[in-house]
């Protein structure tokens, strides 16, 4: 089954063609990052306009690169939420138009479920059940993945998402948006033990908090300025990264221990973090756990993951139609 999938939840206009939820035939993404970098973050109105401008060409190119005509596609999958509502509406309405004009089934896809499903494209042997950490600019979630379409929320962030904290801390350190990759790069030259930063605690056993960690970085920078001290930016980046990763890793592994999960999965933009990957690889290896994470190309927002999730939603009978809508907030 071939699916044309569309992703426009934030600032990436992406289309892909996938087969049977496991094979990637093409993925084409028009990034807006250079434009939003001017403002230090995503400007929703600009994002929506750029999606309108790019979506037709992105879909045409994805079909062309897959060597598949629209007539050879079996269904249309699209992200319906959560995300920026204006951006989501561009993709949803475009997908509904294609579905109506061709008679192809329309498959609504949850953005977080799509991130999890990116791993199905990269790892043919991965099947539920497993425990998944989904961490990105908008989400930090521990999910118990019972089946391909049934996911239970185990833990979440009570304030900033992990990726959001990375971006805000990076901006305070003088790095451009998006900040995660710059913190990763700078941290390689720093001492991760130079600055003592707090690991925030939460009342929820598997919940996260990153607001206090972000504030600690800001206070460290401001204190250095007030005292006239030279700020060791690489070491601050390394200290921040070490602390954030320690929080993510500790909560995830404790959830795995209590739930008896031995298969651990990473997804989302923060899954590209080198330290998170290496630390979890070591910890899972010592415990006899299996660890899966997507390639860097499938960590960020992309339509390939939407196609993978869409296939399993289709098999479960989750089909949309003319009344399919977009949602800025959408529960798992």
Topology, element by element:
Layout: E1 2-7, E2 12-19, E3 23-31, H1 33-37, H2 44-65, E4 75-81, H3 85-102, E5 106-110, H4 111-122, E6 130-135, E7 140-145, E8 151-156, H5 162-172, H6 180-187, H7 211-227, H8 233-259, E9 263-267, H9 274-287, E10 290-292, H10 303-315
Parallel strand pairs: 1-4, 4-5, 6-9, 9-10
Antiparallel strand pairs: 1-2, 2-3, 6-7, 7-8
Question: What do you see in this structure?
Answer:
With 332 residues, the protein is of the alpha/beta class. It folds into 2 domains: 2-116 and 298-315, Nucleotidyltransferase, domain 5 (2-Layer Sandwich); 125-296, 2-Layer Sandwich (Nucleotidyltransferase, domain 5), CATH 3.30.420. It has 10 helices and 10 strands. The longest helix is centred in the C-terminal third of the chain and has 27 residues, at 233-259. It is globular, with a radius of gyration of 20 Å. The mean pLDDT is 96.
Strand content: 15-25%
- Span between termini: 25 Å
As laid out across the biggest beta sheet, the strand order is 3-2-1-4-5
Radius of gyration based on Cα positions: 20 Å
Tell me the CATH superfamily of the largest domain.
ATPase, nucleotide binding domain
- Average pLDDT works out at 96
Oligomer: single chain
Helix content: 40-55%
Instruction: Report low-confidence residues grouped into runs of 5 or more.
Output: none
Q: What count of domains describes the coordinates?
A: 2
CATH topology of the largest domain: Nucleotidyltransferase, domain 5
- Count of alpha and pi helical runs: 10
Structural class, from secondary structure content? alpha/beta
H-E order: EEEHHEHEHEEEHHHHEHEH
Q: How many beta strands in the DSSP annotation? A: 10
Largest sheet: 5 strands, mixed
The CATH C-level class name of the largest domain:
Alpha Beta
Shape: globular
